[in-house]
Amino acid sequence: PISSAVGSKSFTAVAINTASKAGEWIVSKLGDFNNLQLKSSMHDLVTEVDKGAEKMIRNLIQTHFPHHEILGEEGVEPGPDASRKALEQVSHAEYLWIVDPLDGTTNFVHGFPFFSVSIALAHKGEVIVGVVYNPVHNELYVAEKGKGAYLKGKRMRVSSELTLDHSLIATGLSADRSHAMPVNMRGIQAMGPKVRNLRVAGSAALHMAYVAAGRLSGFWEIGLNSWDMAAGAILITESGGRVTDTLGNPYSLNVRHVLASNGHIHDEMVRELGAANATGF
Ligand code: 2AM
Ligand code: CA
Ligand code: CA
Ligand code: CA
């Protein structure tokens, strides 16, 4: 059943349109913004651009789907369990949009061109649409449940490496210095010598899109929130890859750490992170 759509725009069309508009605006503000603020610590940044992009995204989604709920990073109280707490409050929602208006804020602030807009739609807790947009490269990654994942009109497939020593793997270092970062440093220590090489580029959503596109064979990170992963997760599963938490448990909106891969190297990654005591909980 179509839930009170204005006109006949599909969920996916609205997600694409919204991510594109927000992304274009974000890029127009590169190097030209002020009012840099700190959230939980001096490593946790937010700008007027994060907030403005979220407002723009909320407005566009609400115009088309006024009865849907929206969970966005800049709309919730910051904190270690921000996303889970917020998810509890919208657990009644049939349709829930999960939005990271700007994933890679630190990169944006420094002019390092690796950041993205991430928009997902969940139906009864299951992600059914995911869009990640990199406005610097004008690359829009889109997936629909059961219909595949696409980049520039071409179907995406995950990479085909069978072992870690042939794999390019990415990870992330969260702003959380007390818990997530030390855990992930152990992961890097363990994984570094096993893989072809490691990348840590600072946008979880974009790293996951790269796994979907076959540019990375795998990605893991500790200390994430639902809006960092929801769109990336469906991009990967619809590209033939696998997404779990770092212990190998099934992915859900509530997970706080993620392991995403082409599938072939998944168990090997779970084993290595486990052996290094580098998994989330
Ligand atoms: P952000 O840029 O939207 O904040 C980098 O490793 C990843 O961690 C990014 O996806 C980044 O998202 C996210 N991140 C940054 N600060 C964080 C924090 N304090 N807690 C959890 N995740 C964070
Ligand atoms: Ca943030
Ligand atoms: Ca984020
Ligand atoms: Ca963000």
TrEMBL record:
Gene3D superfamilies: 3.40.190.80, Fructose-1,6-Bisphosphatase, subunit A, domain 1 (3.30.540.10). Keywords: Hydrolase, Magnesium, Metal-binding. SUPFAM superfamilies: Carbohydrate phosphatase. Its cofactor is Mg(2+). The keyword Hydrolase applies. Pfam families: Inositol_P. PROSITE patterns: IMP_1, IMP_2. Transmembrane segments: none annotated. GO terms for biological process: inositol metabolic process; phosphatidylinositol phosphate biosynthetic process; signal transduction. InterPro entries: IMPase, Inositol_monoP_metal-BS, Inositol_monophosphatase-like, Inositol_monophosphatase_CS, Inositol_monophosphatase_SuhB. It catalyses: a myo-inositol phosphate + H2O = myo-inositol + phosphate. Belongs to the inositol monophosphatase superfamily. Homodimer. The rRNA transcription and antitermination complex (rrnTAC) consists of RNA polymerase (RNAP), NusA, NusB, NusE (rpsJ), NusG, SubB, ribosomal protein S4, DNA and precursor rRNA; S4 is more flexible than other subunits. This is Inositol-1-monophosphatase. It comes from Paenibacillus naphthalenovorans.
